[in-house]
Amino acid sequence: MTSPTTIPIHLTINGHDHSLEVEPRVTLLDALRDRLDLTGTKKGCDQGQCGACTVHVDGERVLACLTLAAQVEGRSITTIEGLVEADGTLHAVQAAFLEQDAFQCGYCTPGQIMSAVACIREGHAGSDEEIREYMAGNLCRCGAYPHIVAAVRQAALEVQS
Amino acid sequence: MTIHDLRTRHGDASDGSADQVGGRLSRVDGPAKITGAAKYAVEQQLEGLAHAVLVESTVAAGKVRAIDTAAAEGAPGVLLVLTPDTIPPLKTASDWFGTPPPDVPYCPLARDIAFSGQHVAAVVAESFEQAVAAAALVKVSYDEAPAVADLSDPKAGDGIPIDMMTKEWGEAEAAFASAPVRICAAYNTPREYQAPMEPHGLIAAWQGDRLTVWEPSQWLDGMARTYAEWFAIPFENVRLVSPYIGGGFGSKALALSHGAVAASAAKMLGRPVRLVMSRPQTFTGYGGRAATRQTVTLGADRDGKIQSIVHRGVNETSMGGMWVEPLGSVTSVMYATPNFSSKQNVVRVNSVVPGAMRAPGENPSAFGIESAIDELAYVVGIDPLEIRLRNYAEQDPHARKAWSTRQLREAFAAGAEAFGWARRSPAPRSMRDGNQLIGWGVAAGTYPVRRAYGEALVRILADGTVEVESSSIDMGQGTYTILAQTAAETLGVPADNVVVKLGDSRFARAGVTGGSRLAGIMTGAVHKAAGAALDQLVGLAISDPRSPFHALQANTLVVAGGRVSSPRGDGPEVSIAELLASVGADQIEAKGDTMPANSTAEDRYKAYTTIATPLTHTDGDYSRHSWCAHFIEVRVDEDFGTVRVSRVVSALDSGRLYNPKLAESQWKGGIIMGIGQALLEEGIVDRRHGRIVNNNLADYLVPTNADIPDIQTISVGIPDPHSSALGGKGVGELAIVGVAPAVANAVFHATGKRVRDLPITLEKLI
C-alpha cells in the first residue's frame, strides 16, 4: 500500500485565496466543508443527484460533489457565503427566498439559491414553466417548489430592473 | 395575586400583526439558512476529528462467516476497524415506550444478518477519503440463508394478527352480505422513503464519562436516553445538540445503530468521530414507510349510504423488530357506518424495521378508504363529492364522541368552489385537451391531534431582550418562529427582541417532535413560561420601592411594544430595560410546563424520554382531529400513459394557525410528498437478493420542481380549545393524507382505469 500523497492547490473562493495540501481525490465539496469551514455548501447525496452542493465556478453552476478540488485551481469559485455583499446586503435571490418562504429545513436552500442566481443569469427565468424546468436539478424534500418558483420569478424581475 | 391576565387569545387564522401568534412573520431562522451560516449537526469543526464509514451486509439473511480486515487496517490513515468481534458490547436500551430492556448485550454491528444493508463493520480514519477507501477493502464472507424479500414473496405467509388494531361494531359481515350495493377491492402501497435532504449522521465526542452528540434529531431527550442506556451512564451525562435539522419526516426520532457505532469508536479512540451515512446507506440504515396491503369492502344502499365497512390490512415488518402501520385509522373515523370491522396483520420480511414516515397509518389508510368510496360513487352514480357528504360522520363513529371541531364540510365547500368542481363532467374520459385526458378527483384526509407535555424557559435580560429555551427542535416546521411570536405576544415585546434557542438537551425538556404535536405543546409551554415571567416583571415594578411605578399603587401594569406603563396612562412609561435597571435586576427567568401540577421527577422523565403518554386524542368528551379535502386535476397522455398533476386546491382544517405563512408551506410540502407517493415513489426490491435496487435519489424518484404545479391551500380551521392551549390542531402530517387517492381518483376520471397499486406509473395505464 502506498502512502498518501497530497498536492498543493490554490483556490479562489468568494474573492479570497486559499492554499491547501490535499489528496487528488478530494472533491471541491469536501474541501469546502471539511478543510475550509465553508459548510454553507451542503452534501445531500455525494453523487450528483440532488443539487444541494451547487456552487459557481467562473459564474456557472456546478455540482461541487462531482468536481475535484484540483480541477478548479485558479478558477473563481463562489459559494453561498459569498453571495451577500460586503455591507451585509442580501442578494435579491436570498431576499426573495426569505420573503416567499421558499424553504423549510434549509438544507437544500444554499444549492437552490446558487442555482437560482445562475438560472436568472442564464436567461432561464422567463416564465414559471421555464423556472420549474431549469430549477429541476435541485431537489427539495420539504416541498418548497411553488415558493421557490415565486422567489425566482420575483428576484428575476428585481435583477433585470 | 393575578398580576396580569393569562387569558388565552383565540383569534381567527390570521389575527394580529406579524409579531403576534397568528401573524405571517417570516422565518426567524431564515437569514441563517439563506446565507449558509446555519451550522447543521455534523458541520461542527472539532479538533482531532476522525471519520467513520460503515460497511454493510450484501446478503439479506444468514450469518457473517468471517471479516478480513487486514487490508483495511493497513490502508493509509486508518485508525480503527470495528467488527462484531472488536466493538465493545453495549447494554440493550429500552424501547420508545420505555419498556425495560432485557439484560443482554447489544452489538450495533451484526453477526446474524436479517436484511441487506445491515451494518457489519466500520472503518475509522484520519480523513473521510481514507475511511471510504479503506471501507472498500473490508472483505466479509457469509453463510447465506434464504430470505423473504417482500410482502409478495411466496414464503411471506399471512403474518401475525395484531389484536390491538381490531376495531369492530355492529354486524359488519352480515350487513355487507345483505347490502344492495357491494364493492370489494385490494389497495397496495409500496415501500417509501423519507429521504430528507440531509443524510443521517452524527459527531460523537467523549470527555471522561460524558458524551456529547451532535446529531440531527426529532427527539433530543429520547435519543439522549438511548445513548445513556447503551453506555450505562447517567442520562444527565449525555448532551444532544441539534440546532438545525435538514428534514426528518419521521426518520430522525430515534438513536440508531450507526450512532452507537460512532459513539463507540469515539470512546475507543479518545477522539471525536464523525459518521455520516452515504445516500445509498440511508435506504437501509433505518426504515422507511412499510409496504402495505388493504382490502376494503363497502356495503351500501342504492343512494350510496354506507351500511357496512369490512377492512383487512397487512404491513411488512422486519424479522426481529415490530412496526405496525395502523391501516384502519382513517377507515374507522371518516364516514358514518352502523357496521364496521377492521383487522390487521403484520408480516415479517428480511428488511430493516420500517419506521415513521409522514402520517404513518393515516396515509396508506386513506388511500384505501378514499379510493373505495370513489369506486362506490361511480357504481351508484353519485358525484364523488356528494357521496362523501351523504356519509358525513357527525360524530366519531368509533369513539362515539363529539368532534372537538370538524370543518370538513367547510373544507369540501371551500375547495370545491375554488377548484370549480361544479363544472366537472361526471363520466370518465369525458374531459380532454387534445391528446391529454383530463381528470378531476377529490379525497379527504385526517390526522389525530396528538398531545403530550413540554417545558420552556423564558428569560428577560437586562437590555430588555428575551430568550426562550427548549430542547424541542425546528426541522423546518417553524418552531423558532412561532415560539418567538408566542413569547412576543405574551410579554408585549416585538418579536425582533426575542431570541429562541432550541436543539440542545441541556435546555428545558420536550418530548418527540412527531405526530404534529410540537407546535400545540410548545406554544402552550412558552405561553405559560412567558406569562410567569411577565408576572414577575410586573410584580417587581409594582412592589419594589425603587421602581418608578411604586408610588402609583397600581395592581397591574401594561407591557406593550417592550414598554411598561399603567393601564390608565397616568404614570410613567419606561422600557423593560429601564425598569429592570431601576430595581437593580439583572434578569427575570421563569419556567413553564404543561405537566399536571403534582407530577414527580419520574413522571417528567417518562413524559419527555418516552412516547408513553396518557393523553389520547379521544380523552374526555371529544375526539380531536385535523381534516382536509384535496381537489386535484391530472392530465394523462392518451398514447403514453404519462400522468401530470396540473392543478391542486386543498382546503384544510388545522384549527387556529400560529403562523399561516409557515403553515401553508408545510401543507404544500405534504401535498407535494403525496404527489410523489401517488406517481413516483417506490422502493424496488431485487427478489433474488432482498436488496433495494433504487437506493439513491436518481432511481428512487422524489418530486422535482418540474413535477409540481402551483398549489392553492385554503385554511378553513377555527380555534379548537380542546386540542391545544392556543387553539391549533396538527399541520405537518395532515396535508399528505388523502393526496394519493385524490390523484388516483382523478386518474380514474381521466382514463376509466382504476389503479389500486401505488405508484401510478405509465405501464399501469397503457
From TrEMBL, chain B:
Compositionally biased tracts (Basic and acidic residues): 1-13
InterPro entries: Ald_Oxase/Xan_DH_a/b (IPR000674), Ald_Oxase/Xan_DH_a/b_sf (IPR036856), Ald_Oxase/xanthine_DH-like (IPR016208), AldOxase/xan_DH_MoCoBD1 (IPR008274), AldOxase/xan_DH_MoCoBD2 (IPR046867), AldOxase/xan_DH_Mopterin-bd_sf (IPR037165)
Oxidoreductase as UniProt keyword: yes
Domain Aldehyde oxidase/xanthine dehydrogenase a/b hammerhead residue range list: 35-146
Gene3D superfamilies, per database record: Aldehyde oxidase/xanthine dehydrogenase, a/b hammerhead (3.90.1170.50), Aldehyde oxidase/xanthine dehydrogenase, molybdopterin binding domain (3.30.365.10)
GO molecular function: iron ion binding; oxidoreductase activity
Stretches for region Disordered: 1-25
Protein origin, superkingdom: Bacteria
Keywords (A to Z) from UniProt: Molybdenum, Oxidoreductase
Protein name: Aldehyde oxidase and xanthine dehydrogenase molybdopterin binding protein
